């Protein structure tokens, strides 16, 4: 019977590296050094460096702290997906629509949206 291999090194995936780059980018955007962030988190600067290279993963508790300290969504921090991006205009047409909506007085926007919803339904019904 052989002993379990305790010398196995963790394989660093592209996802690990990408997560590390996001942590590093968020940290530098906040103008923090690894040491400053480590002090805020109560960990070593070496551990922050390991996170940023993808050598070590985050615990849920540390990810939540990073979210708060670095002012980034945890979803983006862990996966790269940013829910806020889904709320931004994606095309020139969407941007124009957004600008038109924003140009309408706030008290008239619901009335405008009613018109837009009715038009959208009419177009959807024509396609089916």
TrEMBL record:
It comes from the Bacteria. InterPro entries: Cro/C1-type_HTH, Lambda_DNA-bd_dom_sf. This is Helix-turn-helix domain-containing protein. Residues 23-77 form the HTH cro/C1-type domain. Pfam families: HTH_3. SMART domains: HTH_XRE.
């Amino acid at each position: 019977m052989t002993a379990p291999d305790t010398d196995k090194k963790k394989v660093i995936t592209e996802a690990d590296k990408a997560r590390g780059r996001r942590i590093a980018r968020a940290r530098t955007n906040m103008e923090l050094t690894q040491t400053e962030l480590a002090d805020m988190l109560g960990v070593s600067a070496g551990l922050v460096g390991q996170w940023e290279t993808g050598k070590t993963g985050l615990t849920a508790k540390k990810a939540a702290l990073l979210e708060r300290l670095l002012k980034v969504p945890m979803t983006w921090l862990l996966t790269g997906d940013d829910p806020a991006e889904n709320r931004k205009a994606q095309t020139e047409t969407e941007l124009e629509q957004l600008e038109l909506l924003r140009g309408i007085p706030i008290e008239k926007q619901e009335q405008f949206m009613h018109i837009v919803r009715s038009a959208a339904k009419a177009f959807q019904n024509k396609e089916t």
